[in-house]
Amino acid sequence: MGGSIHPISLELKKELLEGKLKNPRDVVLPGMAAVGGMVVPALVFFALNSGLVSIKGWAIPAATDIAFALGVLALMGDRVPSSLKVFLLTLAILDDMGAIIIIALFYTANLQVDYLYLALIPLAGMVMLNLKGAHRIAPFILLATIMWVFVLKSGVHATLAGVVAAFCIPLKDKWGKSPLHSLEHALSPYVLYLIVPIFAFANAGVVFKGMSVTDIFLPLPLGIALGLIVGKQVGVFGVTWLMVKSGLAKLPAGANWLHIYGVACLAGIGFTMSLFIGSLSFDDPALMNQVRVGVLTGSVVSAILGFAALKIAARRDEKEQAVAA
């Protein structure tokens, strides 16, 4: 159920309809930051792997693991502005969707278009249920699962089906109740404590036999690690800075530049999504092991830097509030 309906997309829809993203202009900043956070890491990787067989993995550092990035931010509790969570949530969702498009265009060898056409049938059913204000979740889950299977069979990453299905869930039914809120609440524990850990452990195994510390400096793992650490920071923070300074956007309410830097670092937690793209890029176990080393190194360093930056920002805010009092 957590796979056929993307739970984090439910939260994004809620913010778009009744939260901090009701104004379309508020989506522009995280949207552009997401673009920067995909393009710059890919360029960093390309610079280190151009002309090599490993260039096939150029999209690996472009991804962000939404669950882990938001999980690190959640460790700060209410010590960071709530708008910052929405900013990271939107950025990560759009980054995830961008990664899915990249997979569909560049990493899908045999695209079965007929299955995509079939996927439109359950999608149309969910849209009709939404328009009628349906309140029962079961029909949505059934149709979402059917669509998920068709999309999977087409060769496109099935997460796309989960994202689309989530946006079909009604915010309110004709009785004023919220199926979206109910489903979001029901899915969260399964995703957080079951699905994400299983996927992480299944993909994160690194075989250290025959490897040395210097292997991180090989072009493939180094390109991934630097893409996640440096590329994400430059892409997300740089684009945000340009948008704000040019007057095209404003910082999230209550956030400062150190907060934005912390979020830019957290966007470098590629983990499960980066590992998935890596598995599509390489069949060679040795190269795949290098991918894991690069992804884990880049993700862990990004998480530490992001948490440290947000911690410092929170302490500064607390000191300023104490002085003002």
TrEMBL record:
One of its GO terms (molecular function) is sodium:proton antiporter activity. GO terms for biological process: regulation of pH. GO terms for cellular component: plasma membrane. It comes from Nereida ignava. Gene3D superfamilies: Na+/H+ antiporter like domain (1.20.1530.10). It is found in: Cell inner membrane; Cell membrane. The keyword Transport applies. It catalyses: Na(+)(in) + 2 H(+)(out) = Na(+)(out) + 2 H(+)(in). It is a multi-pass membrane protein. The chain crosses the membrane at residues 27-48, 55-75, 87-108, 115-131, 137-169, 190-208, 220-244, 256-279, 291-310. This is Na(+)/H(+) antiporter NhaA. Pfam families: Na_H_antiport_1 (PF06965). Keywords: Antiport, Cell membrane, Ion transport, Membrane, Sodium, Sodium transport, Transmembrane, Transmembrane helix, Transport. The keyword Cell wall biogenesis/degradation does not apply. Belongs to the NhaA Na(+)/H(+) (TC 2.A.33) antiporter family. Na(+)/H(+) antiporter that extrudes sodium in exchange for external protons.
